[in-house]
Amino acid sequence: GAVVSQHPSRVICKSGTSVKIECRSLDFQATTMFWYRQFPKQSLMLMATSNEGSKATYEQGVEKDKFLINHASLTLSTLTVTSAHPEDSSFYICSARSPRTHGYTQYFGPGTRLTVL
Amino acid sequence: DAKTTQPPSMDCAEGRAANLPCNHSTISGNEYVYWYRQIHSQGPQYIIHGLKNNETNEMASLIITEDRKSSTLILPHATLRDTAVYYCIVRTYGQNFVFGPGTRLSVLP
């Protein structure tokens, strides 16, 4: 399957700091990428949809000023968790949508585990 | 909300076929059936998808009933590394994926 990478895979930070997570689509150009969050023993929850060159669309209940998303190129989207707090500790997963010619299948990154102290 | 219903957990003996069911009784004509799996602490992995015909690839087979209201993912020879949560998702092209709780498959030695 297609490869989507995330960096870093794990990050520990102090409360009040900001953390940037990068997501790269390595096998295809992705006009649309997605960010999910997953708490322990729960399923993935969509946070936002990121379209290249435009503002992200956030799901209800997700603070856009806290979770800044930038999709500056067709292969890179970033999620910045601003002023992180312990309740932001979670597993963050990005996904890239393949082109229509490949069925709009979504491929997921390996995830980033964020721990806020 | 997820449009599918899956059993919360299943066990399978190593080397045997694992048959994971999924009900999607409200599926519409232009919705595809996708299967992903998530091994602990990793991102979901795409397995297979189909519209109405049965599909097979190197990982699994997907059997969709004629009325399309249910499907079965078949792992022909399960190994310990197939232990994961398996998600069945229906969506049209371009729709977001909505993940339900999935089925936790445990492959036992």
List the helices and strands and how they pair.
The complex is a heterodimer of chains A (117) and B (109).
Chain A: E1 4-7, E2 10-13, E3 19-25, E4 32-38, E5 45-51, E6 57-58, E7 67-73, E8 76-81, E9 90-97, E10 106-108, E11 112-116
Parallel strand pairs in A: 2-11
Antiparallel strand pairs in A: 1-3, 3-8, 4-5, 4-9, 5-6, 7-8, 9-10, 9-11
Chain B: E1 9-13, E2 18-23, E3 32-38, E4 45-50, E5 55-56, E6 61-64, E7 70-75, E8 84-91, E9 103-108
Parallel strand pairs in B: 1-9
Antiparallel strand pairs in B: 2-7, 3-4, 3-8, 5-6, 6-7, 8-9
Strand content of chain B: over 45%
SS field, number of helical segments of chain B = 0
Give the assembly state of these chains.
heterodimer
Mean pLDDT level of chain A: 92
The major beta sheet of chain B can be summarized as: 5 strands, mixed
Radius of gyration of chain B: 13 Å
Rounded average pLDDT of chain B: 94
Overview of this structure, please?
- The complex is a heterodimer of chains A (117) and B (109).
- The model of chain A has no long low-confidence stretch (mean pLDDT 92).
- With 117 residues, chain A is mainly β.
- The radius of gyration of chain A is 13 Å and the shape is globular.
- In chain A, a hairpin with an 8-residue loop joins strand 9 and strand 10 (106-108).
- Chain A has no helices and eleven strands.
- Chain B is mainly beta and 109 residues long.
- In chain B, 0% of the residues lie in helices and 46% in strands.
- In chain B, the strands form two sheets. Chain B has a five-stranded mixed sheet with strand order 1-9-8-3-4, with no helix packed on it. A four-stranded antiparallel sheet of chain B has the order 2-7-6-5, with no helix packed on it.
- Chain B starts with 8 loop residues before the first strand and ends with a strand.
- The mean pLDDT of chain B is 94.
- The interface between A and B is medium-sized, with 25 and 21 residues.
